[in-house]
Amino acid sequence: xxxxxxxxxxxxxxxxxxxxxxxxxxxxxxxxxxxxxxxxxxxxxxxxxxxxxxxxxxxxxxxxxxxxxxxxxxxxxxxxxxxxxxxxxxxxxxxxxxxxxxxxxxxxxxxxxxxxxxxxxxxxxxxxxxxxxxxxxxxxxxxxxxxxxxxxxxxxxxxxxxxxxxxxxxxxxxxxxxxxxxxxxxxxxxxxxxxxxxxxxxxxxxxxxxxxxxxxxxxxxxxxxxxxxxxxxxxxxxxxxxxxxxxxxxxxxxxxxxxxxxxxxxxxxxxxxxxxxxxxxxxxxxxxxxxxxxxxxxxxxxxxxxxxxxxxxxxxxxxxxxxxxxxxxxxxxxxxxxxxxxxxxxxxxxxxxxxxxxxxxxxxxxxxxxxxxxxxxxxxxxxxxxxxxxxxxxxxxxxxxxxxxxxxxxxxxxxxxxxxxxxxxxxxxxxxxxxxxxxxxxxxxxxxxxxxxxxxxxxxxxxxxxxxxxxxxxxxxxxxxxxxxxxxxxxxxxxxxxxxxxxxxxxxxxxxxxxxxxxxxxxxxxxxxxxxxxxxxxxxxxxxxxxxxxxxxxxxxxxxxxxxxxxxxxxxxxxxxxxxxxxxxxxxxxxxxxxxxxxxxxxxxxxxxxxxxxxxxxxxxxxxxxxxxxxxxxxxxxxxxxxxxxxxxxxxxxxxxxxxxxx
Length: 663
Description:
By secondary structure, this protein is an alpha/beta fold. The protein has four domains: 5-124 and 310-339 and 347-366, ATPase, nucleotide binding domain (Nucleotidyltransferase, domain 5); 143-303, Nucleotidyltransferase, domain 5 (2-Layer Sandwich), CATH 3.30.420.40; 370-583, Vaccinia Virus protein VP39 (Rossmann fold, 3-Layer(aba) Sandwich); 593-661, Helicase, Ruva Protein, domain 3. 41% of the residues lie in helices and 17% in strands. The protein is built from 25 helices and 19 strands. β15 (498-502), α19 and β16 (524-530) form a beta-alpha-beta unit. α4 crosses α11 (313-325).
């Protein structure tokens, strides 16, 4: 077979993949160093650990691939590498190794999008050209591609090589991420996808979980499904009944597969595609492939081999082969871009564009990469966010450098801004309180969506800037004050309101207490906070903390989307997440004596979170062991459980039973 022989490197997450691929199709070598066993101990990927393992395995994996192919450096025509999207630490390892190889051996460098790699896995073959085996036919165009993995769920219409149209994507969790999270809820090993499929294989669904409805016709949503599973599990725990893991797993898998297949089939029929192609780790799911093949009927379904579905270097080599043929080249300025998106097709686009410079790619990505669909009413007036360079010039001109003492990190990423606004579910004339508006980028998005905004800014420099910029906007008002010292009723004196903000990490807990404990909590709260804190607040029983119990007594909590550190200027040291809190119609523990008992109980228990609940409460509270034991038994709580395993409902029951004794 004629074509370029390319050494391809994939290191976007927790797999170190290196392959040698000829002509973008034939695999001569494909080596993968997996970290699955390592991350199973923590139930998920730890980015820092993943990056260290990439460093450990990248050179041995390159050497193994070259040895398997029987290839030397002089036999190669190019080196290709994934430069996004993915985990920044892991991406940097592959990108820097590829640039070093390119420089030392004089090989052209090709940057490849990870999602594009999953699509091009459908071009791969291991046919032996030396034995005269013919190559399979290439996938036909137009080709509908369902890319579904732990980090991505997208429905992409591929018109030709390099010509992509985004039809839909997840508005919250990726399908693979939902599998992992539900797997943890059901007590299954990591990764959750294969574990759920294994136990669901011979099982019958014991319930029918809801299918989410989205604004975008071909968009997906799995966050609500995950919550539905959580509620089922909590219901069994509350009854002290055994959890039917296999039946719940089967019902969950059925719901995910149905959502993916229904929209894929609808798009395939409407667009008149020649074939449908799967890509990504979830493409290896047996049920997904079977149901999709059945419902597509006469439309061909292309599915890569399971080993080519998960992250690997061969898929990067396949995409790189076509980029090489189109004259696409990168240089030493290539950088890792964690939120990189595909070059979506627009009017006048041609086939491949050259790999953009790092700054061009990051700036363009802010308009292309969306975590949620933008409602038409918002899209018409949306504020174009400043690029990092523009923001730095603005800060220099206005002398508005971020103050480290106030933990100021200004959000500039369009996808994150849109996701916050969409998560707030804004209606015309909604009253929104924004804490820490900074330079007003999110403020203008909220105003463009029709909301009235009351901004509370502590920094006098930023307050003065906002007055000058937005003084003539009728629906904008500004309070120059510390939000933690103000009564929420004074900030939003009339009617219901929503709290929407990108807040400094260190005020998350006090801000939640200040707004949620008042007589009139926000009906909806959407906060951009440290990712670890967001996960902690939204944690289910089994991973609860004092903060999650306190918040979930008043509101339903969910993590809407993760936001990488590079979305900020300056970039913080950790990623963030969008946390949404929907106020309950009635709190689990109403204000009054029971609420005070609730606070005492939860605080006392979590001072000794590693102790059994009867020991933790017995040590801290002025009640006898007999009374405490009776209360625990009356609420169906085993005294040997740890505090973090109790649900809000169980804490509420204990609070009511012990309120009179803790007054």
